[in-house]
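The data are quoted verbatim here:
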Amino acid sequence: MELCVPPHPCVTRTNSSSSSHLLNPSPRIFLPTTHHPLVSISRRNMQKSTICSSASSTIKALDSPMDTVRDRIGSVKRVTNETNVVVELNLDGVGSPDSTTGIPFLDHMLDQLASHGLFDVHVKAVGDTHIDDHHTNEDVGLAIGTALLNALGDRKGINRFGDFTAPLDEALVHVALDLSGRPHLSYDLQIPTERVGTYDTQLVEHFFQSMVNTSGMTLHIRQLAGKNSHHIIEATFKAFARALRQAVEYDPRRRGTVPSSKGVLSRS
């Protein structure tokens, strides 16, 4: 009995006189093609090739500027005759709030910035709040803006733009921003009361203007609806936090390049 194996596609038969004995009829048993040793070898090689190809793709995917970036942290200490402010801002944090400014309502708003932006916002401030909250509110805004500037660095690979509309009950506030390096604030809130608790509501605009000036940010704040002063202000900070989160996050398609046709985004 003769055992015959179907030819493998990679094997080419040639006619020769030495193979003439194969013409003699004899009982034959054909093995299934799936058990052909060359087929098995070929399949194993294909599997290895596929695995290697997948590994190469994985390595290539991980080989991008964003995969080696460490947390972007800006730390600032600002000391004047009126205030002493220390700020640490982590743009790649987990939303950890820790703010003690001596102005309870401002602390509450900075907690919104941390929670909804997923930033670690740590602020310690001592100021002349026995006079009023103006100097401390201003210097906290200036210090946070400087910390943001330092954390952003050359701004390579970021989205740059952020846009978010946040509701809070009857209040609705829209925030759009551009981390352009050019400070500008357009502010349009109609806050109906002069104070929320002990906090002077005029200081909301002053806080954002201070932060814009040192961070180099273009910021537009627009109230679309709202009657309650607390709701309007809190919706503003929540919308700002989400818009800033969008702007500082990385765009993988940029591959670490500066998001500007000029090739640079600078504070000046």
